[in-house]
Batch of 4 targets.
Target 1
Amino acid sequence: MGAQLKIGSGNTTAPDNVLEVEGSITVRDKIYAGGDDNTLGNPGKAGQVLVSQGEGLPPRWRTLNLPIIEENFFYLIYNNSFTDYTDDGNEDNEGLSLGSSTSGNNGPYTEGTARDNAMFSGFQSISGLTKTFDVFSSDNKVYVTFEAVAHIGSSALNAGVDFSCGIFVGGATQSSRTLRGIRRVTLQQADTAQYPFITFTQIALADELGVGSHTVEVACKRNANYNYTGNLGIGRAIQENINNFVAKTSLKVEVYEAPQTFHDIIED
């Protein structure tokens, strides 16, 4: 036989629930979730909270895993790696093949200059490495790591090239991206081996970006020739001693933030 009970009100109107309490409740022992006529149900464990499972289902004890956040500490919020290499036989869209021209500004280059400034005349973007990421806190540090193989097709002693690759971070358009890091590299034939190549890595830091979406772009330029006017491959093979898989570019974006808003992660 069922009944409805209302506690703590002078209003005699029948409650909508089996038990309705207007006021505070002090519980000095267990609360059992679930159960039936023959079992008490689950009393939960230390640190768990009672969570609704929705209409028609009993509540359930759950564990909330909340990160321990220290003031003024930065935490890795986003981490992803990219390459422009695809094993589809189409090499035209992978890396860069720069001809003999060294026209345009050959440096030095100034941090914070917009990508579309005349300073970067002659720079070509590696289109497959132009990527977008999000920032959720105004207190942030973004590390961008770029790596590739540079390759030339010379067998002449001391033949080589100088080139520069820059990392730009900003908005969706080149005019809103600025230089955050650049390296000038020399690739030169030092012995009788043919078709030299080198692996080079550079890291750039972009900090205090605004909250929202941002874009990273990598662009390179040929600065000087040394007894060699053939193509320079950056992330692309020029001769058969390596292939595009070996020469491929890679880009890693790491976003560190001092969090201002947190989302609870709920696990059983």
Target 2
Amino acid sequence: MSTIKSSTEHLTLNADGSGKDIKFQANGVEKASISSTGAFTSTSIDATKLSGALPAISGSALTGVGKLLNIYNVICSTPVQTTSTSGIDIAESITLTPTSSGSRFLLTAIVHHYTNSTTTAWAAAKYNFKRDAVILRDTDSFGSGKIAAVGTKTMMMVPIEYLDSPNTAASITYKIQVRTMAGVSQFFNNYAQGSFTIYEIGA
């Protein structure tokens, strides 16, 4: 038998029986409840009334705010040389399965760009991310070449970034591609390792 008891110090609500909940209603409509295991459930909570230290909350349970779900990273350790003006893969790919179709992915990379030319003063290249067969971003040209006064070659680090919304929960593969702008022989990740990192952001 469920009971309500009071004393000078306590008000006790007891839902008698295994698996029985304590329910709070207003005008015949349930607004909140306390389960037999002690879990509190409410149709709404006024955030302005919350104060003090809150318990740890799982990010996967949050709604209405962005949250970091996963981080994927590879070191781009394979050297590549190309004169292609149509685009080639220059780094290790990342294959992943989105947590949900609403996930977005922040793609970031650092590529080491080196031009194998002592005659071309400025040899440019363009980079893009690729999701499966879809080209996502085509950068402005980045270039390196000989220092004109000395006739030597230079290397530079190229940062690339793109926020992608694939709108799928199926497995996808991301890559980095490059194409030279003048067919000049160029190296990538030849003298130093690059990096490719993807952050999965929940809706």
Target 3
Amino acid sequence: MAHTSARIRILILHDEPLLHAGLAALCAAAPDMEVVPPAPHRVGTRPACDVVVADLAQALDAAGGAARVVAVTGALRERDIRGAFEAGVLGYLQPSCAVDELLQAVRLAHRGARHLGPEAAARLADSFARDHLTPREEAVLALVVEGLSNKSIAQRLDIALGTVKAHLKGAFAKLGVRGRTEAVVVAERRGLLHEGATAPADAPARAA
């Protein structure tokens, strides 16, 4: 199909074949859009496009380039959503979103505007209503995830046992939980723990 300047050129990059095909078909059917094929001649080369519609990993990879980016993903952890927008992704939708919402997100992204699906928006709004874990609380909770006892955590982080208990108490209050198991479930679901959380800069870890 010949390129028409009024149309939004869209590149689909999704790792699920059925979803990839569905996204391509929906965008191609819109009168103001056209789907450009991937560039087969060179690995990693992308054709000229205005908007990339991709899974989360490829959306993060494409963010910051010349094209605007919309992520279509089932990932609803706070850290994933925040990370996507911080990287430059403009749209964040679930695969179950309505067709009209997908097309609107693409059009908004093309204009440089953001669009957040209702599920992701609710998750992000909830996060703003809560107190965030401190780096030390994250570090202690990450070691709880590893299965360490309070005593072992104190040894690993080179802090007093009472300090470990205080950090756990603070983390439990912020997460709205009563115990270690529930705290781990909530923290992992919200994506609050990240690689490196067990060794904050102000206190190098040492072996237990």
Target 4
Amino acid sequence: MAPQLDIQGVSIVLRGDFTPTIFQPAWLAGHKLIREQESDAAKVEIIHRTAAIFTTEWLQMNVVQDRFRVETMQESFYEPLRDLVLGLFEILNETPLRQMGINRGFHYRLDSQDAWHSVGRQLAPPKKWDSLLDKPGLRSLLMEGVRPDGHEGYVQVKVEPSLKIKYGVHIEINDHFQLKSGDSNLSSAQHATELLRECWAVSMKRGSEIADCISSIGDET
């Protein structure tokens, strides 16, 4: 039986210099980035000079002075999440940014304990560890490859046992970009929005393909 995708999500992370008090529901609604109803119903954890953290029905936002992160666990809101970030940094286009990540997260349910163990055995063969550890097993694997599109950055893949699903595999893909700085023709925020438009669809597709391939390793004989 093919692995079952039970949980998935997307986040966009930016590293740079932020003023957290800007990033609050009323400000977003005032700029038509979320609806007034969403702003009114938002659950605010903190709005402070050091952090802005809140959730709406589909969005989680967490901003501190050096890191911006938005996430949704609802597939129908993947594109609105991207559009929110585009809109934000078209307005805040002088925000100094250094890095951007388009991140995918997946939890797959495998149909048996044997298939679950098989994923770990094939990614990290226990025989290579038998002389070093007793009963070795995969706890966390991080692989990194160069970007296939010529942009500066990398693609990282992390594989772990799922903590949310029995016989589950948790796969994270970090599509990482290093942003331009000091270019008078293109601010780092403009570079980020340009990359987000250009690479979004390919990044999303690549993440799904990587996750599907890894989760299916347990079915291989």
